[in-house]
Every structure is written in C-alpha cells, then in structure tokens.
Amino acid sequence: MVTKLAASALSLVVLFLLAGWTPKVPSSADSSAAELTGHVRFLSSDELMGRGVDTAGIHQARDYIEEQFKKYGLLPGGDGATYFQGVEVVTGAKLKEGSELTIADLRLIPDRQWAPLGFSASGKADGELVFVGYGITAEDYGYDDYAGADVKGKIAVVLRYEPPPKNDRSPFRKHPKYSRHAALRTKADTARQHGAVGMILVDHHSAEEGEKQLIPLRRTLGRSDLGLVVAQITREVLDKALAEKGISLGALKEKIDRDERPASVPLGLRASLEVQIEKVTGKGDNVIGVLPGAAPLSQGEHIIIGAHYDHIGLGYYGTRDGSTEGQIHHGADDNASGTALLLLLAQELSRRPDPLPVSVVFVAFTGEELGLYGSRRYVIRPALSLRSAKIMINLDMVGRMKNNRLMVAGVDTAKEFRGILNQAGSALEVEMRPGVARSDHVSFYDNNISVLHFYTGVHEDYHRPTDTWEKLNVEGIEKISRVVLITVEKIANDREPLTFVRLPSPSGMARPTPTSPPQAPNP
C-alpha cells in the first residue's frame, strides 16, 4: 500500500518518464572523499550558524540537501510532491504564573532558589520528600536507589549525575563519562515508574553556588513531558531545610560514593510543587528523496536510510559547556558526518546500472536534538507505507572512527543482523551493541521495524563549538559507507523479510538532554 505522499511521488515518476527524464549521475572522477569533505565543510560552516531548528542556517542546509537529492535523480517524497515534510518542533518554553515550590513552610523564589526542567509536565504535586540517591534503577549494573524506598504518591529527591567509579569493579565503570542512567529524562522516567508524583533534582556535585546551579529551562527541553512534574532546587536551600531534621545530603552522597551502595531515606519534609509551562514552537522540515527499486512503488518493499541534519545552533539548548552559549556549535560529527554519508549513499545507489529489488527512501531528519521530532513526524506520514519497510538504517555521528572501530546498535532487533554485519563489516572492527540506543531510529523501532544505528562514539567535542570538520576521519566515513552499502545489498536481495525482535530491555542508552549519542545529556 502506498501512502498519499508516495502516490504523489509515483505520479512524478510517470511524468518524468513521459518527458524522457533520466537521473543525473555525478562524474565518476569525483572521489568519495572529496564529496564527503565538501558536504561536511558546508554543513558545519560558520555560515550555517550551527543549524539550529527554524533558523536561516538550517534552511540553507535543507536547501542544500534538496539540491543533492535532485542531482542524484531521487524522487520527492515530502508534502505536496516536494522534497520537504513540515515538522512542528518545540524550540523553547516559558514559565507561566502559578508556578511555585514550597518546602515545609518556605516558599522558594523561582529562578533563584528553584526552577522547573523543560520537559516537566504542567501540573501539581504534593507529598512527602524521599531522598533516592542518584535516582537510578539499573538492572544491567546491579544497582537500584529505589530498592526498599517507598515513593508512591511522594516526591523523589534526586542527585544529578551518577556514582563515580572507584575501580574496575565499580558498577558504573562501563562508560568513560556517564551512562544513560545519568540522563535527566531517564531519572524522571524512573521516578515515574516507581510511582512518584514529582521529582526534585539537586546538584551536590558542582562547585557553583546558588542560582548558578540551576540548569536554564531552554537547555532541558523535550519532545514530551513524561507525565511527571519535575523541578530543580539549589543545594543551599535544601541543606538548610534538612539541617533542622539532622540530615546532611552531602554526607548521604559521600556514603553512596564511598560504599557504592544506595542510601535512600525519607527526609521528614513535605513539599508542594506546581509547574505551569508554555511551549514555544517553531517550524522545521524533513528532506525526503525516494530511489525507486525494480518493483513498482505501490507493490515493492523498501529500505529507509536516515540521518538528522539539525544541530544545537548557538548552544542555548543542548550545549555541554554553558560558558559557550552564544558561540556557533558547528556539529561536524553531530551530525554533518551522518548527513554527508546519507548523501554519499544516495549518490552511490543512484549510480547503479540496474535498480535494487527494493526502493530506498533517504530521509534527512530535523528536530532530532530537541527530541526526535522529525522521525516521529515521518512515521506518522511516511513516504511509503511502513508496512513495506524492511529496515531503517540510522547514521548519527559517524565521523570520528579510531582504530577501524565501528559501533552498531540495534543488532538484536532482527535475528539476521549479526550474520549480515559479520560479512559486511569484515574489514573493520565492528562492535555490535545489544541495545537500541537513542536517536531517530527509535521512532521506527517503536513501530516494529528492525533498525541499525551506525556511529563511531562520543568524544570531548560533543555538543561543543569545537566539533569542527577538520577533526573528522573522512577515510573512516568512506569505510562505513562500504559497510552500509553491503548491508543494504544483502537485505535488498533477500526475498525473505527480516525477523523483527522486540527487545526486553529499555530502548538502550539515552541521549543527552535534549538528546544525542549513547551518553547522557545534561547529566
């Protein structure tokens, strides 16, 4: 079954054929390296100002991708026979009147002593305060702050970050920075799952004092609010309130860090938290191109290859270094690299003398950094029916390959993937990750489509202005392109459908709030 969008594309196929149209094929003299370098240099240039959603810079990036799709002879798969699919994105938030936090009899001052988090629900929570350490339930690490703690109908008080690893036996030793359990949204979701009616975050790690501890509202935006009222408080205010109860939050934190065991405890205080947030929205566009296969679009299967092309603009949301707000965050690896690879794959597959047995839909997503907006929109209005989708391949941060090492998440979402990747990636050291990880492919996994997420790992320049094109391993991106092409060929030529597997564990590692690679955001 072809969707309305695909039907428009199908009509264009007929028109192009009647007009004697043939795809434009780039000169064979153009090397892959030159193509990739040209793409990433432009997409991460100062001119594009970090490709923030609904800015002039991302509009230039959008038009550039459209131009390439046209050059490769791809058919438009967007709205109204265009390459663009409109997407509404939450780009900001405002705190409305009526928002307040009272602990015991003390009414706190907003933006000085407390502030909501951007992904908080609008609503009210009243209840006892229960300290639950770092707010982590991690079966994979054998650690649970909620074990023995009753937070049902109560407000969970949670520390930022996670217990620091002391040695190779520490449960949180698996990540050089922070695991997914340090992500703010993960903490909030965990509190909700344990029955809490609200969550209050406190930073007992930072050297900052007073209001400087509070994360700006714009830096914690999210696509959805998780259905929980969430706020943050300065440690000075909470420490003062707890001193009257003879409780030291600092001492409890030190105990957890020292013993590597939870130290959850009721705090003997009640709180009333009300948050009213007004969302500010902007407009974005997915860019969609369709490469028809041997079978008609209305009858054949298809493969989806995607990469997000937005980044965090001037760093007012999503930056890993608050001191760099206002500076251009170039986003060369995240995700000009994936977008460049998407374009290279479109170019290579469009050059084939004979079409693949299946069609290929190429999607450059917008709004990933703010919460997977583009991919969520696409699965609602796909270019081709998702029922005929064999696989979704996501390319996110593929530009920092070291020692021929490539990571692939989602390998267990189809029984056949490990065998395919063992062949396709034989020239590289492919690290197959059992989880799904968090990026645009999750939107497809949630719709029962097998997914693969190709990436090369997190680095110190992630979500900082220093993520520039000169630091990319272009040769590494070329190598990844060959792995992806072989994977596409194998799946396209296999008449049998992939065996989708719903994983029992959570959707893998959370992306930094607002989002991003397999590490924690604004932990």
SSE map:
Elements: H1 4-18, H2 32-43, H3 56-71, E1 75-76, E2 84-95, E3 100-103, E4 106-107, E5 114-116, E6 123-131, E7 137-138, E8 143-144, E9 155-159, H4 184-193, E10 198-202, E11 229-233, H5 235-243, H6 249-259, E12 265-275, E13 277-291, E14 302-308, H7 332-350, E15 359-365, H8 373-380, E16 389-395, E17 405-409, H9 417-424, E18 429-433, H10 441-445, E19 451-455, H11 474-493
Parallel strand pairs: 6-9, 9-10, 10-11, 14-15, 14-16, 16-19, 17-18
Antiparallel strand pairs: 1-13, 2-13, 3-4, 3-12, 5-11, 6-12, 7-8, 13-15, 17-19
Helix pairs in contact: 2-7, 2-11, 7-11, 9-11
Molecular structure report:
- By secondary structure, the chain is of the alpha/beta class.
- The protein has two domains: 4-92 and 281-492, Aminopeptidase (3-Layer(aba) Sandwich); 97-275, 3-Layer(bba) Sandwich (Glucose Oxidase, domain 1).
- The protein contains eleven helices and 19 strands.
- The strands form three sheets. Strands 1, 2, 13, 14, 15, 16, 17, 18 and 19 form a nine-stranded mixed beta sheet that branches. An eight-stranded mixed beta sheet has the order 4-3-12-6-9-10-11-5, sandwiched between helices.
- Helix 2 (32-43) packs across helix 7 and helix 7 crosses helix 11 (474-493).
- The longest helix is centred in the C-terminal third of the chain and has 20 residues, at 474-493.
